[in-house]
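Posting here for the record, re: nicotinamide-adenine-dinucleotide.
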Amino acid sequence: MTKVLVSDPIDRAGIDILSQVAEVDQLTGLSIDNLKQIIGKYDALMIRSGTQVTSEVIEAGCNLRIIGRAGVGVDNVDVHAATKKGVLVVNSPGGNTIAAAEHSLALLLAVSRHVAQAHASTIDGGWDRKKYLGNELYKKVLGVVGLGKIGSHVAKVAIAMGMEVIAYDPFISVDRAQQMQVKLSELKPLFEKADYVTLHLPRTPDTENLVDENLLASMKPTARLVNCARGGIIDEAALANAIESGVIAGAGIDVYANEPLEKNSPLRSVKEHLILTPHLGASTAEAQENVSIDVAEQIRDVLLGLPARSAVNIPGLSAELMDRLKPHLQLGETLGLLVSQLSGGQFNELEVRLQGDFAQHPSQPIVVASLKGLLSSALGERINYVNASLEAKTRGIHVLEVKDEACRDFAVGALQIITRGDNGEHTVTGTVSPDGDLRITSVDEFPINVAPSQNMLFTRHRDMPGIIGQLGSLLGQHNVNIASMQVGRKIVRGDAVMVLSIDDPIPSNLLNSIHSIEGIQAAHPVTL
Ligand code: NAD
Ligand code: MLT
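Prediction output follows.
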């Protein structure tokens, strides 16, 4: 029975989906050691931000096929280790967008109107209306750093509230920003001009401590800062100092460099003008249901052999694309598998040529499929769409892709796979018929037209009378049934190839006899 481990608290809706296809164990609060001990039993792991999926955990997951992160950030998963092991990592990129955007807006308002401090004072018996004089957002400048999904929603609501929005995001075009009525700015001018700054960018080596003492010092003394993105982007000690010394007017923070926030964090000692929440950005009932359903559906699909829609470690390969390109991917994989067997596995370069109409398809998935086929003779079931590119790189295989729209050999175009290495160069070409059937259309320089089948025999021979007959009788004597046979040659009595589809694999002793037929130069049994 397929087994799924859910190791963080996850909304019930996702558990119900997983239970349709697997036995689901919910074990939360496991230490890394506990997780390592039990993970070997599971085909899938579903987590939120609590579970640390380290390389050791992934290594111990001998049956693990997929890790599903019910949320956006995968910083608690060693994605590189997962990719290397061929374990798919999926997330829910949009399930908690609104929740995180609304929490950012809640902090913007709360920090402007001292909501938390005023509440605490009132509970304590106070009635201090003067102390908690606030500011309006209306007509103020909001600086958004990171204008992605969450940043754009915050911008939209802020504009509706009468704010002027400027943004810093090096990966967003001026046109896109204009459509959102947002003016793009550089980072420092944004911090200088804004009355409020809100962060919505990922934590990466480039963004660590991006908001440091200097950037904080460039803000207006009346300005306030909100971070609902990721801890580690703001230098926390510098922020605590900036608030206490009046360099800025306040901040609202949801995420921290180390979570849970350390007991002795300098942020805990700032009593006024700072509101801290314990990573609550995605904590709405709606968002938790969304991410749970989104990720559970993807785990279910992958366990049923279907593609996932939000794979983190096979970017650009959506379910929709996989579905549309299915025959092309099958062709890439089949040709990769064929050429690896014809070349004896000795290659250090792979060239993938998309010809004619094939050139109009996205090449990356087809290259990945070809690599998967190419490496599966060597790596068996360990190779998959997730780790194919990384495995090729590790093995020093140089990958080239060429698009040649002008080539019109077949009405629907063709895919050509070339390997180069110690055994020279090998080329196979194939195509997909309009009804989706695969054809192999050439081997090296010889034209053929055969459907791939599970067991095949490819020979190189001299085109002379008697060879076909001798090979046919030899196979017959060894009880190997021939389903179809085709010869490809360029000139009469020159070099030629013979391609046989056979119902049974070729026994190894038979291969020696085939090699001894006069005129046969090479014979390769192939399993597809
Ligand atoms: P997104 O990928 O849609 O947007 C991120 C944006 O940041 C992109 O537009 C990207 O171009 C931009 N960016 C990348 N590097 C940048 C840089 N150096 N400077 C400026 N911009 C840069 O992601 P999203 O869904 O909008 O999430 C934004 C952040 O919020 C992420 O860090 C995510 O992990 C976090 N998040 C937090 C919570 C929470 O609970 N607090 C919930 C959801 C998401
Ligand atoms: C996320 O990355 O989705 C957020 O940090 C929310 C979370 O998982 O709690």
